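As practice, study what follows.
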Amino acid sequence: MFMLGLSEIYHHLDLLRGKISYNLAEVFGLLFIKVYLAILLLQNISLWGFVWLFARRVGSNLTILHFTVDFGIDLVGDANKLFMIPILGLFVSALNFLLLFVFLKKKDFKFIAHILLAAALMVNIFLSLALGPIYWMNFR
């Protein structure tokens, strides 16, 4: 009786593996998704690199983390808190990529995929732009 249960578990795990590999092949079979993912990967790697170089240059000193035109400097802290910016970009990219699998069988999948991946790219671009004033305020 116990062996029958294990064979059923193995069978269901094998079916799950087959469905996952089929869905991955469906998503990665489209060229524009590969292009979006390559750009997102390069964008996020550049975010990580910039924040790492910034934190290394600042060292253990306090750094300006936020600046507004109306009130000036309103957040000062450890430079390691800036690592939340690339983490946020990575989270949004991963979430939108996982949402592709939710919408995989929809009729307008290509349109939805463009919207999801373009939104992730825009978030990463805006996060990159947000680092500019922080760098400028700390090293001017």
Observations:
- The beta strands are 62-68, 72-78.
- The radius of gyration is 21 Å.
- The CA atoms of residues 64 and 137 lie 7 Å apart.
